[in-house]
Design goal:
By secondary structure, the protein is of the alpha+beta class. It folds into five domains: 48 residues; 99 residues, Immunoglobulin-like, CATH 2.60.40; 118 residues, Sandwich (Immunoglobulin-like); 123 residues, Immunoglobulin-like (Sandwich); 87 residues, no CATH class. It is 20% helix and 39% strand. The strands form nine sheets. Strands 21, 23, 24, 25 and 26 form a five-stranded antiparallel beta sheet that branches. A four-stranded antiparallel beta sheet has the order 1-3-5-4, with no helix packed on it. A four-stranded antiparallel beta sheet has the order 10-12-15-14, with no helix packed on it. The longest helix is centred in the N-terminal third of the chain and has 23 residues.
Length: 559
Amino acid sequence: MKPMSKQTPMARRFFFALFIFLLTSPVWAASLTVEPGRTSLAITDQLTLNVTLKNGNTRDEPDFAVLRKDFDILDISQRVQSVSVNGRSESSIIWQLALVPKSRGQIVIPSLQVAGVSSEPVTIHVTNAPESPADANAETFLEVTANKNSVYVQEQVLVSAKLYSKYNWSGRELGSFELDNALVEAVSEDEYVSTINGVQHLVYEVVFAFYPQKSGTLRIPPLQYAAQLRSGGRSLMSFSSGPVRRGRSQAIEIDVKPIPAANGTGAWLPAKDIKLTQHFSHDPDALVAGEPVTRRVTIEADGLLPTQLPPIEFGDIEGYSSYKDKAQTDENRSSNGVTSTRTETLALVPNAAGRASLPPVELRWFNTQTGEFETASLPALEVNATLPSTPGKPVNVANEPDTTGGAGKVTVIERAPLWLLISQGITAVLLIIFAALYFFAPKSRTPKASRSTAHTVSDKTLWKQIKRSAADENWSELRQNLLQWASVHWHTPVKGLDELSRLANDETIRQQLQQLDKAIYSSQQHNFEPGTLLPQLQKLRVHKRDGKSDGLAPLYPTS
């Protein structure tokens, strides 16, 4: 049995190292995405569809035959793309399809499958063919249209500029809109083929988002264009350079209505839709006193710029210290307009154990589709904090809410390939073997060490640690050292800085401890000065050493 006894620790170390290696090895799961060039088009337009397979271990092609029910497939091209991610080469296979819809209405591009992974369906809206433009017989012409002829101040209106050509071009250029009474943002750009009066035209389309800044009539001036045609043939297949064609569009006028009086003095938010979502870094029903939790609340607005989204008012929470971080904004632009987000982050620190209520979060906005005011809200939420538990206890983490979406892109469904499932099975078997070797190995004959190694750290040692962490400006470590020192100084567990300040019964100490929490949990400027806090605490140590204090501050100090 002795040889087995000597080999068992070595075997345990080997399997442990192998187990850790497998767990920490990166997992690159295959994924399949489907991205249409547009989600809204006319029955006479062509649609470009990009299908991308990432990290696939096969060159099998998806079954595109399922698309023939609703589309004519004019062309399929394929290319391979490789990029380096964290030093690892990641390859993608991209198929580009040219499609023409067979019918009007809502058409669903079904889920495609390849290499064991699938995409999600995508919905395309197909409209009637537009009326033939007045210049439809010209070689080139520009058409500018707006999706609305009447809007409110700061409401989004989409203006589409389409440059048509019967023949291919070697270059094309559109001018720009410059208005004093409106913000203008280009949100999408596309090139495709459309059929007008039975003749194919090459189309270059740019969509602009206008945001009128005052009521009255918004005049969108004519837009100029230039296109250099290709010679050597009277079709889209011409390739050599030819003449340059120039022209401009017609002007457009839009009626802009003032902000409704019912809006009051609050933020004016004219949008197609506004949603509020939130996420906690920990389960809000299982918080721990003295330990921070991060609350993130996100505004998602369809039809507004990020600069139009207001700050979020969280309100005060009794029994909690809160520290607001700098807001993060983002936007997504497409042919459907601008979708913006604003995320506010709040660090919450429970000062004591017990239940508390987070007040509701509400945002009043104007629905431009219904013409009515609505309120996006997050209801009041009950949270619970307990005293710190034993070290090593796992913390439940709330799941991130699903906020995916957006025109033209679909959520990727990632499935683990067969090789990954096999490796996970091997890992599980090795884990079982490792556990068996660990628990059933012969016990060492050396004397068993005492299970309890905890000992009381002296006041002097803790005070040195406090000064060291203060000198290093390691505020998190300083906070922990202060709590340990306070527990030794007052001979009672001290779980939070609010409890420390109550025991110290000193206004300067209380203010500095609040600034210390702010320095830890907030990115905003703080006024924490360890050179102010430490001398005040040193006075407490001297008083205790000289016998001038009974060691415990009054539970309810009087002023």
